[in-house]
Structure formats: structure tokens, C-alpha cells
């Protein structure tokens, strides 16, 4: 049961007109971490929660922690109290949300981790440490090399999974079969490839060279897209090399397309295929409609899914800071804030696919295990495709960041020759230069802007706002008013929030973005939590992404999350 208590404030400063807001909560998956690597004696920086781990075990000597997790500074009566800040507040000029925000350039780029200082991840259930969580890579016998963009290689074309040919499918199955047959300590093996996600996403690595231990995680920040792009890049090259086919390309799970894509691809449903994973939701078949608004409590629909896509990629992501997420800088404990696609359809598909019979909805429903499902890589291929699509949408400021801290962020991956390669974000911005593209298909959600109907009641409120002021508007709105603190328990609350400026011109909208701040959010970290925030002109109406101006779907999966909400 989701429990969100004490939404202590919900405001914008210097507002002149009310903004009706609806918050709906429900349960979802992707639980937060509970198991530390090892108790740490190091100090914590003020103002940040630092996981109580010491990540100093060598990759050949796993040392599971025998102790139970000790109460941390935010463990109150067994409940993890975590604050989440939604938005950055107020009405911001272009400089505040620009691609060269000086505040985002005050530190240094995240550098690749030291693979020999990889520890047991802290994201798995108790009792599973030795069996499942040691996901550190094998040691390289030679120094790493720096990545160079390929030249003279054939262009790989990633096809939509629902349209692959029988010949292609047989090649893919053979490649994955051979990958599964490799020794488990071979960095090209399926086990090691799956463990990449575990180590990078679940606390296997720490930032080095700082007086306190700092997390190195690739979710909920601006490195989410480039990290996963590189991850798939090498996974794809390894598969191609195992069948001696340099043109082999991963299929993408086209879950944004109702033309055969909004279901689990049938290529993953054959129990006798190496593409099959038994730890998936048994209720999902190749005819089950995917739920891109998973956890809403509503039956999924094509219209709802298209609304989620429009909001995540078009109306809610007009700037890099909204699409990619918050900066993650070296020397700082991450105050994580994911972008619109990561928090929306990306997470929804993970949760929808995970097996509810497992303790933590493994495989797809948990970071440490997600890479064990072959469908994961096709899912993330479509996520990666969204990055390409986003940059082609006209209007707005849909351009990647240009500051050094993002461009010079680096990671390590093993290539198809078992060579350790250092890669940087700056080399991942153009898939054509990397040697692959996506097969074109229809994108119907590009034209699916939600069109909420103005009911008689909404018109009455709008009239009162214009001629009678805020007080009259409040009187015109029927139903009980919400007061702080708010408690969400599978329920909906509605608030009026003043806007900083009315009747904004087209130029105003290009230069400024309205963002909303919600802070003081507390929830039980042991439970699944999901809530949606909407803008609507009708406060009592049954709303959803297909019928209203949705801002964001939030699924808290770690503490210190920051999310920007944009007025659509």
C-alpha cells in the first residue's frame, strides 16, 4: 500500500492566478535499496544522505556483510522518511533552464569507476547476497583503451521487434545462445552483460578520490541516456561478433506504437528460446496491451499510452534539463532528478514486465536483475530511440547539453574482443557516427496532444477568476478544500496554485518555463510508491494522461530526488 504523508508545501511565489492541480497516488514497483555493502566509518557531508557502505572489496574477493542494516539518520520508527523536491520553483528564464546553466558547471564530470574497487551491491533482498548480488566485472589483463568512433564499418539498422523476419530471429537466437554459453567470467557472457546494469545502477561503484564515499549511479540524472546508449552499443557488437555478422542490430520494443508494438514482442514469449525469461509477469502475453501509465489503477488504453508519450517527449520535455534530468557532478552526492522519459514510459515498462511472484518483481522490476531479461535490451533500445526522436521535434530548445561536465563524463565497457574501453558522453550524441540507426515506423503520438474538455463548472471557475478574483474562483469551485499536510493513500487531492504570470506571449513561453515545486514528501521506503501530478481546469473530473495536461508521473526509487514539472 502506498503511503505518502505530510506533503508540507505546494507553492510558487508571486503568483497572480490560480492553477488547479490534482495529485493522485497508487502503488507501484521498483523498491528502494535495503542492503548495504559494509558498514562505513567515514563521515557524511552535511545536507546529504550517504549510504552506510564501504566499497573497498576487491573484485576477486566478495565480502558479504553479515550484519543487519543499522538505522540511519532518516530511519524513524522503522519508516524511511525521504524528502523529494519536485521542480526548481517559480517562473524561470531561459538561462535558468538552459543547456549551459552555470550552476550545472560548478563541479567536474563524473569519471569512469575503478573496476577493482567494486563492491557487493546494496539493492537486493536479504538472504540473497552471495547468490545474486555480486555483479562486479572480471579484471582486465591490459590497460583500457579510449574509444574511437568507427570508420568504414557497415551501418547497423535496428528493426522494430514486431516486424522482424524469421531469418533475422534465427540469427538473434543463435547470437544470444552463444552469449549464454560463454564462461561466466568472460566479460562478453550474458551473465557479465547483465551484471553491468547491476554494478552501475545499484551501488557497486563509488566515486573515488574524495574524503567521503559518494555514490556512482546512472539513473535519475543527465547520464541516464548516454550510459544506456553505450551499454547497448557494446552488447550489440558482442552479439554480432558471436555470429560473425557486423551488420547485426538489436530489435527495439516499439511500445509507443499501437501498430503491433504496444505488447510484449512475440520473439520473447517462446519458452524454448534463449530470448525467454521465466521471471516475467505471467499475465503478460503478446496480446496484452502495455500499460505506459502503470500503477494508475486504470485499465490501460491506446489513447492513454499515446498521451503518456506526448507528454514525456513533446510537451513536457522542451529543454534538455527536462528531458535528460538533473546534473550529476563529480565530488557531489547525487541529488537525483530523472528526465521525463526515464520517469514515465521507461519505468512503467520495467514495472509492468516484472514478475509479481518474485519478492521484488524480478527480473525487469528491479535494477540489479533487469539485465537478466533479454527483453530489457530491446526495451532500452526504444528508450534510446526516444532520444533521437526528441532532437527532431520542432520548437522549444530540444538540444543536448553543451557543457563539459556532461560531455566528458566517462564509463568503462568491455568490447567484443574482451578489451576494456573508456567511453565518453560526447561520443554518444550521434548514432549515425556510432554506426547504427533505427528503422523508421509511424509515430502517432507526435500529434496526440491532450485536449481536455471545459465543463460548465470549469467555465464558471474561469469566469470567476477573471472578474471576481481568486476568492470568487475558490467559491465557485465546489467540494472540500485540501489543507497541509496532505496524506495520500490511494486517493486524489486537488489544490489551487497561483501562476506567476497570465496571458504569456509565444516569446514568453520560448524564453521562460513554468515549473512547480512540491516538497516535504515523506514515504515508506519499504513500500511501492507512485503518484501523478496533473494540471487541469476541472478539479473533480476523472483525469488521465489522455484527457488532461499531465505534468509528471513520479515513482520515487531513491532519496533526494529532484524533478522538474512543466506547465503544458
Automatic annotation (TrEMBL):
Domain of life, per UniProt, equals: Eukaryota
Cofactor: record remark? Binds 2 copper ions per subunit.
Query: Where does the chain bind Cu cation A?
Result: 197, 219, 228
Q: Where is the composition biased (Basic residues)?
A: 40-51
- Cofactor dependency: Cu(2+)
GO terms in the biological process aspect are:
pigment biosynthetic process
Record-listed Cu cation B binding positions = 346, 350, 380
- What are the record keywords, sorted? Copper, Disulfide bond, Metal-binding, Oxidoreductase, Thioether bond
Crosslink 2'-(S-cysteinyl)-histidine (Cys-His): position given as 201-219
Database matches in SUPFAM superfamilies: Di-copper centre-containing domain
Chain ranges of the Tyrosinase copper-binding domain: 219-236, 373-384
Q: Which Pfam families match?
A: PPO1_DWL, PPO1_KFDV, Tyrosinase
Which GO molecular function annotations are given, in alphabetical order? catechol oxidase activity; metal ion binding
Q: Region (Disordered) spans which residues?
A: 40-73
Which residues, if any, are the signal sequence?
none
Query: Can you list the disulfide-bonded cysteine pairs?
Result: 118-136, 135-198
Fetch the InterPro entries from UniProt. Answer: Di-copper_centre_dom_sf (IPR008922), Polyphenol_oxidase (IPR016213), Polyphenol_oxidase_C (IPR022740), Polyphenol_oxidase_cen (IPR022739), Tyrosinase/Hemocyanin (IPR050316), Tyrosinase_Cu-bd (IPR002227)
Family recorded in the similarity comment: Belongs to the tyrosinase family.
Record's protein name:
Tyrosinase copper-binding domain-containing protein
Species of provenance: Glycine max
Amino acid at each position: 500500500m502506498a503511503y505518502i504523508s505530510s506533503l508540507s508545501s505546494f507553492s510558487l511565489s508571486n503568483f497572480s492566478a490560480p492553477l488547479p492541480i490534482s495529485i493522485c497516488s497508487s502503488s507501484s514497483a521498483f523498491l528502494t535499496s535495503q542492503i548495504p555493502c559494509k558498514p562505513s566509518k567515514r563521515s557524511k557531508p552535511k545536507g546529504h544522505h550517504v549510504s552506510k557502505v564501504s566499497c573497498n572489496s576487491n573484485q576477486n574477493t566478495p565480502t558479504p556483510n553479515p550484519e543487519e542494516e543499522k538505522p540511519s539518520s532518516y530511519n524513524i520508527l522503522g519508516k524511511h522518511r525521504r524528502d523529494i523536491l519536485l521542480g526548481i520553483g517559480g517562473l524561470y528564464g531561459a538561462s535558468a533552464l538552459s543547456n549551459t546553466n552555470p550552476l550545472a558547471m560548478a563541479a567536474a564530470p563524473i569519471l569512469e569507476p575503478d573496476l577493482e574497487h567494486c563492491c557487493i551491491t546494496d539493492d537486493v533482498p536479504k538472504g540473497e547476497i552471495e547468490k545474486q548480488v555480486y555483479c562486479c566485472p572480471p579484471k582486465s589483463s591490459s590497460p583500457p583503451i579510449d574509444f574511437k568512433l568507427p570508420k568504414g564499418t557497415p551501418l547497423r539498422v535496428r528493426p522494430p521487434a514486431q516486424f522482424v523476419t524469421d531469418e533475422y530471429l534465427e540469427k538473434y537466437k543463435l547470437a544470444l545462445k552463444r552469449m549464454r554459453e560463454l564462461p561466466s567470467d568472460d566479460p562478453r557472457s550474458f551473465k557479465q552483460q547483465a551484471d553491468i546494469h547491476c554494478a552501475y545502477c545499484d551501488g557497486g561503484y563509488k566515486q573515488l578520490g574524495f574524503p567521503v564515499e559518494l555514490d556512482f549511479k546512472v539513473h535519475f540524472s543527465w547520464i541516464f541516456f548516454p550510459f544506456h546508449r553505450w551499454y547497448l552499443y557494446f552488447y550489440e557488437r558482442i552479439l554480432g561478433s558471436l555470429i560473425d555478422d557486423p551488420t547485426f542490430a538489436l530489435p527495439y520494443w516499439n511500445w509507443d506504437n499501437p501498430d503491433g508494438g504496444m505488447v510484449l514482442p512475440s520473439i520473447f514469449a517462446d519458452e524454448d528460446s534463449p530470448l525467454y525469461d521465466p521471471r516475467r509477469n505471467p499475465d503478460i502475453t503478446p496480446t496484452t496491451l502495455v500499460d505506459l501509465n502503470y500503477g494508475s489503477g486504470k485499465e490501460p488504453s491506446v489513447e492513454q499510452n499515446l498521451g503518456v508519450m506526448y507528454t514525456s517527449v513533446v510537451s513536457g520535455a522542451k529543454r534538455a534539463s527536462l528531458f535528460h534530468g538533473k546534473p550529476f557532478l563529480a565530488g557531489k552526492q547525487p541529488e537525483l532528478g530523472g528526465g521525463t522519459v526515464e520517469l514515465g514510459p521507461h519505468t512503467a515498462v520495467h514495472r509492468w514486465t516484472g514478475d509479481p511472484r518474485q519478492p521484488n518483481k524480478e527480473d525487469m522490476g528491479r535494477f540489479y536483475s533487469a539485465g537478466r531479461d533479454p527483453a530489457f535490451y530491446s526495451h532500452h533500445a526504444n528508450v534510446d530511440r526516444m532520444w533521437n526522436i526528441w532532437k527532431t521535434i520542432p520548437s522549444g530548445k530540444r538540444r543536448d547539453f553543451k557543457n563539459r561536465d556532461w560531455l566528458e563524463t566517462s564509463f568503462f565497457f568491455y568490447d567484443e574482443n574482451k578489451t576494456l574501453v573508456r567511453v565518453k558522453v560526447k561520443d554518444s550524441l550521434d548514432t549515425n557516427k556510432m554506426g547504427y540507426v533505427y528503422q523508421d515506423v509511424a509515430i502517432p503520438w507526435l500529434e496526440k496532444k491532450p485536449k481536455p474538455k471545459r465543463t460548465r463548472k470549469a467555465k464558471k471557475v474561469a469566469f470567476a477568476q477573471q472578474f471576481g478574483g481568486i476568492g470568487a474562483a475558490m467559491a465557485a469551485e465546489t467540494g472540500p478544500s485540501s489543507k497541509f499536510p496532505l496524506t495520500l493513500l490511494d486517493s486524489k487531492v486537488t489544490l489551487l496554485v497561483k501562476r506567476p504570470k497570465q496571458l504569456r506571449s509565444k516569446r514568453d513561453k520560448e524564453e521562460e518555463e513554468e515549473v512547480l515545486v512540491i516538497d516535504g514528501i515523506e514515504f515508506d521506503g519499504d513500500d511501492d510508491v507512485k503518484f501523478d501530478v496533473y494540471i487541469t481546469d476541472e478539479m473533480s473530473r476523472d483525469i488521465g494522461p489522455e484527457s488532461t495536461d499531465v505534468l509528471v508521473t513520479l515513482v520515487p526509487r531513491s532519496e533526494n530526488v529532484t524533478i522538474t514539472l512543466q506547465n503544458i
